[in-house]
Amino acid sequence: MSIKPATLFDKVWDSHVVRKIEDGPDVLFIDRHFIHEVTSPVAFLGMESRGLKVMFPEKTFATADHNTPTINQHLPVADPLSANQLKALETNTGKYGISHWGLGNPKNGIVHVVGPENGITLPGMTIVCGDSHTSTHGAFGAIAFGIGTSEVEMVLSSQCIMQPKPKKMRISVNGKLGKGILPKDVVLYIISQLTAAGATGYFVEFAGEAFENMSMEGRMTVCNMSIEMGARGGMIAPDETTFNYIKGREKAPKGEAWDKALAYWKTLKTDEGATFDKEYVFNASDIEPMITYGTNPGMGIGITKSIPTAEAAGGSKSSYEKSLQYMGFHEAEPMLGKKVDYVFIGSCTNGRIEDFRAFASIVKGRKKADHVTAWIVPGSHIVEQQIREEGILDILTEAGFQLRQPGCSACLAMNDDKVPAGKYAVSTSNRNFEGRQGPGSRTLLASPLVAAAAAVTGVVTDPRELIA
Amino acid sequence: MPIENVDTDQIIPARFLKATERKGFGDNLFRDWRYESDNTPKKDFVLNNPIYSGKILVGGKNFGSGSSREHAAWAIYDYGFRCVVSSFFADIFKNNSLNVGILPVTVSPEFLDKIFTAIEADPKTELVVDLPAQTITIAATGESESFDINSYKKHNLMNGYDDIDYLQAMKEEIKQFAEKSIY
Questions:
Q1: Which end of chain A is more exposed for a tag (fewer CB within 10 A), N or C?
Q2: pTM of this prediction?
Q3: What is the complex's ipTM, to 2 decimals?
Q4: What reaction gets catalysed by this protein (chain A) (predicted)?
Q5: Which of chain B's residues have a Cβ under 8 Å away from the Cβ of A120?
């Protein structure tokens, strides 16, 4: 009997369907559920009002990250509303027996950083969290996506959610990346080609040489931003790079369980002959360091290029003009040389050790530009520790930078790390929406290398000019 | 609101997500488009113009993109809307809307243009959304289009059921499924 060729996505999805509802969604079993302080309190409240219990507390993991301060974390949180959310998470997780890495815990950090680094995220899993960047975990060959608070309540109370099966898209990037081109550039390039809604309704598999050669951290950066082209999520088939990353991590399987898991994980790839609803193929050699100029992540260009005209950009002209007006930019202007006020390196997109290594590689032996305010925010305490141990902190300090404590920070500016109105920030985060980094803030999304080049020169600079 | 790519950070900015209860979010719906930094209403914003009223919000393509915050749907609901119309919705926002009792109606780009043209000509334009019949109609002209919704969700919305009720009713089946899980 021949078996129909299946995609990686089909294999993982189909093995998690508890029940199919006719002309309705699939009931999907969830292996790992991450929660944080902002999108979980109302779910717990809902459970209480219905008299429900957490069905599998050992499958849910909590961390505090969205509104935590990134300085003086040993002091009480000053903002009473933030403090209240943190307290609610502590109380709710304590009540139901859910593991909680709150503020001050040595494992604390951004949910999409701590999951992988502690071996909680594994290939072939279904993973959800009340956060759209849950797509990060797809880097391991997992189906991972963001959900709303009603769905958080569903997962807590039944370990399932109800989802229509998305369509399938494959995005291949063939060839080798040039000097100074990081995974962030690859994903910003893809989004600029597809637009911010180009993959809505789809689940994406990233394939091809560029991803095969990428580290796990790089793959996480790419999958993290799948949501920015509208995709439900993105995933990459697990390989030796994946297995080497996972092996030995605290919560990863050990001994016999490891061997058994590994044998299964090796089957998790798209079969030859399997079909996708849509395919895109790009060449790695076409990708330069990227930067965004507008108010959605699809509005990105190669750093040496000029801002497109409304006609060239496509879409609604009035929306395009509104966007450029907000940014204080004009059609056909070059991006190089534009003044930068703030630099932010961190977030679930670029808050891992390789990102800080890249940042330090440019900063080393140079000085921070006087007029630039820089926020250097590790994704977790473990990353913070690595920054110290590897001597990166010394490089940063020497260059006039200060290291902050882990959290989501200026990516969404829920805490005090807000870019003031009208100011320009080169940011390694994932969204350049109006006001995302503080009311009136203007965000230019870019890689850690582009951020470092801006931090030392004070203007938008091609990092390749600063690489030895 | 004929603007494309209205993201959930515009619908409700992150600094208003700090509540631990689901109430009062409507006050901050479209906060930074609706109010100046000193909290005075911006005159040119559609929600501040008393000529527009109703329970149906009409938005441009790719409505609700970005963050998964259900607070965006709560804010729209709490403000008084029960239906959002666009030619294209972001996936998570669409799910969240259905889960809080808002009907997302996807129309063709051409029909969306017709609605915007009608509203521009007459801000009092009446739109009729008929869930059982799955149609949306511009009352004055009678122009109508049908929209998709799966029968499971339609049944839920019409009867006030939700997914949590459904899942609670199949817990035994879930328990058996979980026993086979390798994770």
A1: N
A2: 0.96
A3: 0.95
A4: (2R,3S)-3-isopropylmalate = (2S)-2-isopropylmalate
A5: none
